[in-house]
Each structure stands twice: as C-alpha cells, then as structure tokens.
Amino acid sequence: MSDPASLTTDRPGQAASSTPPAPGRSRRLSDRGLAVIFTSPALLLLLGMSVFPLLWALYLSFTDYSATRGGPADFVGFGNYIAILASEQVHQRTLTTLIYVVGAVTLQTVLGFAIAYLISRRTHGRGLLTTLFLVPMMLSPVVVGLFWRFMLDAQFGVVNSMLGSLGLGPVEWLTGQRTALISLILVDTWQWTPFIMLIALAGLTAVPKYLYEAASIDRASEWFRFRTITLPLVWPLLLIAVLFRAIEAFRLFDLVYILTSGGPGVSTETLSFHVYKVAFLGFNTGTASAYGILMVLVVIVLSQLYLRYLNKLKED
C-alpha cells in the first residue's frame, strides 16, 4: 500500500497543491513596497534639507547665538521676539514690504489678466505671443537685477536717454528717495507679470465656448459677457495666482540686493533684506532666526485666511 502523502491527483479541473517557496528564495515585492523603497531616499533628503533647518532655526531663535562668537549660546526665551515686535525699525521695514507687495501684486494682476485676455481673443500667433511674454519670467532674478541696474542708471542708463530725447529731465530711478521703491515694483512687475498672464490664460481657455455662443445669440454686449461669464469663471484661479505672487513678493531679496542694497537710506529695505543684514552683517544669528520664524508664521496665517476666503467664494 502506497503512502498517501506521495499520491497526486491528476483529475481534470483540480488544481495541483501549491508548494511553499524554497528557503532563502526572496518573495516578490508589491508595487507599493517598491515605490516606498525608491522614494524613501529622496523623501529623507528633502526632510533633512527642510525640516531640520527649520527646527534648528526655531531653537536658535530662543538664544543669543552668534556665528562669530565662540562658546555655548545663552537661552533668552522670548526675548528676541519681544525685541523684534517692539522695534521701530521692524515697523518701518514691514510698512515698506507691505507697500511693495500690494503695489507689485496689484499691478501684475491687472496687467497679466489684461494681456491674457487680449491674447485669448487672437486666433493667429497666440503661441508666439505667449512665448515672447514668458521670456522675462525664465530669467534669473540676478540677471534681471543687473540688466535693469544698467537700464535705470541715472547718468548712462537707456531709460534716461530715451527720456532726454523726449525733452524730459533725467530721473534718479535707483537713488531717489521716492523713486527707488517704485523702480523695484516696476522691475518686479516686468519679470513676474507673465506668471499671472499664464495662469489667467489657462483659465480663459477653459471657459466653455457654448456660454459665449448663448450670449451672442441673446445679443449680449462685450462688457456684459466679460462681467457675467469671463470674470466670474477665471476669478478663483486668478486669486490662487495672486496668493503665490504675494508670498513670493513678501520674501523679496534678490532685486533689492542687486538694484538698491536697501537704499537710499533704508527706503527700499524689505524684511528679507533686513534679516540678511542682521544675520550676515551684524552676525546676530539668534535674532535673525527669530525674524525668520515670525515671517514663516505670518505667511502661514495669512495664507490660511486667504484660502478660507477662497473656499467661502466657492460655496457662495
């Protein structure tokens, strides 16, 4: 009589018994496991480059640490934060930053949406025009700053030469107390208006054509179609673009450093440039870290309020 364990069944439709994998043979990983393995190094690197510096800056903000002073740093608690919030210099730099952000973002939004609206109405050459308008946005801020620094030079600049040919006197664009901040706003507008234009153009091309066709059948005016169809449908996307540009303008540093270095006096010294001076010229690392943490908190709080406003608009 044969051993039952050695019997095999060859009946049709009956599956053969599965044999366990041999010892030492690796099992096949799932797609999710492979994704975790391949993305973990990059995620760990990103966390190390973003989270750790933020936590380290948070720790330094409660100390009087200086990069040029040896020895351990003393814990000062909220002393750095209290000194910053009570400083008149900080109030002045904050006002300068707000004027710059509001002026630049408002001008960029109006011009960007107007250019996008005009391009969207063209049937020929739309791609070429869009590409040409996007060129300033593709340039480095340092290159843009150097380019406009020579263009706006009071003695040898091209802008003042053109004004002179029109019979107008030279303007101290970068050295005047009243014109320096305006010059920064204009240069930033020249570079970043294409960003608003690109977002607005994407929204304009996504508007359903049948809405305009129905309005044309009803003989609606151009202004009525713009006010009741175009603007309401593009407005939410435009507000998101405004949020991105406001955050970027709030931490402006490159153009200030290249064009004016915060001058004349402190008329163009934004918060980011002031933090640079505190950290790398005054070597007050603890105070500069407190500045950075406060700026991050301001951006987070204002962004959350803005996003709540956007969600409220969607619900309405």
Summarize the structure in short:
With 316 residues, this protein is an all-alpha fold. The protein has helices spanning 31-60, 79-85, 88-120, 126-138, 141-151, 158-165, 180-205, 209-217, 222-250, 254-260, 271-281, 285-315.
List keywords for this structure.
316 residues; mainly alpha
Q: Give the percentage of residues in beta strands.
A: under 5%
Order of helices and strands: HHHHHHHHHHHH
Q: Provide the residue-averaged pLDDT.
A: 86
Gap from first CA to last CA: 84 Å
**Number of H/I helices:** 12
For this structure, the quaternary state is: single chain
Radius of gyration: 30 Å
Helicity range: 55-70%
Coarse morphology: globular
Number of extended strands: 0
Structural class: mainly alpha
Main sheet properties? none
Low-confidence segments: 1-17
Any chance you could write out the topology, listing elements then pairs?
Layout: H1 31-60, H2 79-85, H3 88-120, H4 126-138, H5 141-151, H6 158-165, H7 180-205, H8 209-217, H9 222-250, H10 254-260, H11 271-281, H12 285-315
Outline the structure in words.
With 316 residues, the chain is mainly alpha-helical. It has twelve helices and no strands. It is globular and about 80 Å long.
